[in-house]
Specification:
This protein is α+β, with helices and mostly antiparallel strands. It has a single domain, classed as Aminopeptidase. It contains nine helices and twelve strands. It has helices at residues 2-31, 38-59, 136-154, 166-175, 208-216, 222-243, 249-256, 266-277, 307-321, and strands at 80-88, 96-106, 111-116, 122-125, 130-133, 160-165, 187-189, 197-199, 260-262, 284-289, 292-297, 300-305. The strands form four sheets. A six-stranded mixed sheet has the order 9-6-1-2-3-10, with helices on both faces. Strands 4-5 form a two-stranded antiparallel ribbon. Helix 2 packs parallel to helix 7, helix 2 (38-59) packs antiparallel against helix 8 and helix 5 runs antiparallel to helix 6 (222-243). The longest helix has 30 residues, at 2-31. It is globular, with a radius of gyration of 23 Å. The N and C termini lie far apart (86 Å).
Length: 339
């Protein structure tokens, strides 16, 4: 009898220590920012606890373009391109793509190229049969017309699109605990017909409200506005890598919800994220903005794109999209500063 009573006690202790060990392992994996192997451990934790959950949430955002079949990302073997659309819809206004960025992703090199097109760029709207501001393509025909128009403008077909409504941006930034932005002078939106706001300079961290106003501010130039969008994307990537908090991913997916749409398969997004996370280098973002000259036609302001810039953007895309271009031979964009 004594022997039989002793076994459960030993088993209980063994299970207790086993449970404690598992808890400690999970804590190390999820919060292991100080460990040498934190990236592989983070991916292991993601696979064990979050992968299926996140994929299910991403399914709600999966929205292939009409008439197009699912296109998995062949991320292991070649670079790929996607059109990034930042959609800003306010009360009593049609939705327009405030941000239009042609991105080329090179997963093996952990490098991303962003080609920004100012919203007022004057070009042919594919499917509409007329020329107009490039950001009007989204208002006329949604993601498909926007993508077809950018493809024609740059002479390169983006393989995918990703659209996010700015309404979800504020909550995403707040969920990350804010982001760092290089604001050295107060930004004041004050013109008569514009939303009024002030962003104070030199704050260590900016919350979602300030970040949203930062990308919306438009009282200097279209070029500067476009550069701010690039800076914001860099700041978001930097913040996520600093935090290294895998556990926040489902919360971010919940926030994105209906504000996020893409024709990239959920499983492809997860595999791509893991490959970028486990790369030897932290992701590097390079950007180039197509400049233009302002011109009024029929009392409407447009940007007439600089043909040299368009040609240079085409060369950048060709260099980055070619899987045979080595990392050391990539054409890197010329540096452009906010005016």
């Amino acid at each position: 009898m004594e022997e039989r009573n002793a076994k459960p006690i030993k088993l209980h202790k063994r299970n207790k220590w086993k449970t404690f060990g598992i808890i400690m392992l999970v804590l190390i994996i999820v919060g292991g920012g100080v460990f040498v192997y934190r990236k592989p451990l983070a991916v292991m934790a993601f696979d064990m606890f979050l992968s299926g959950h996140v994929e299910k949430k991403l399914e709600k955002s999966y929205a292939p373009l009409k008439g197009e079949a699912p296109k998995p990302v062949v991320y292991q073997t070649k670079p790929f391109s996607t059109l990034l659309l930042g959609v800003d819809q306010r009360e009593n206004e049609p939705a327009r793509s405030d941000t239009m960025i042609y991105a080329v992703v090179r997963p093996k090199d952990s490098k991303i190229l962003l080609i920004s097109i100012p919203r007022d760029t004057y070009t042919e709207i594919v499917g509409k049969g007329k020329k107009d501001k490039i950001n009007h393509a989204y208002a006329f025909g949604g993601e498909k017309m926007a993508k077809d128009t950018v493809d024609a403008f740059l002479g390169s077909k983006a393989e995918y699109y990703t659209a996010i409504n700015f309404k979800g941006l504020r909550d995403v930034v707040d969920a990350l605990g804010g982001i760092e932005l290089p604001i050295t002078k107060d930004i004041v939106n004050k013109e008569k017909d514009h939303e009024k706001f002030t962003i104070l300079a030199n704050k260590p961290i900016y919350d979602g409200k300030d970040a949203l106003n930062y990308v919306r501010y438009r009282e200097d130039s279209d070029f500067n506005r476009t550069k701010r969008h690039q800076i914001f994307l860099n700041a978001m990537v930097t913040r996520i890598l600093q935090l290294n908090q895998v556990s926040k991913i489902p919360e971010l997916m919940d926030i994105a919800g209906a504000n996020f749409k893409t024709d990239m398969l959920p499983s492809s997004i997860i595999d791509l994220a893991k490959q970028m996370l486990t790369g030897e280098k932290s992701p590097q973002i390079y950007s180039f903005t197509i400049m233009g000259e302002g011109k009024r036609m029929n009392n409407v302001y447009y940007d007439i794109a600089d043909e040299k810039d368009v040609k240079y953007a085409e060369q950048l895309i060709e260099s980055w999209s070619n899987p045979n271009t080595t990392d050391s031979n990539l054409l890197l964009p010329q540096k452009q500063e906010i005016e």
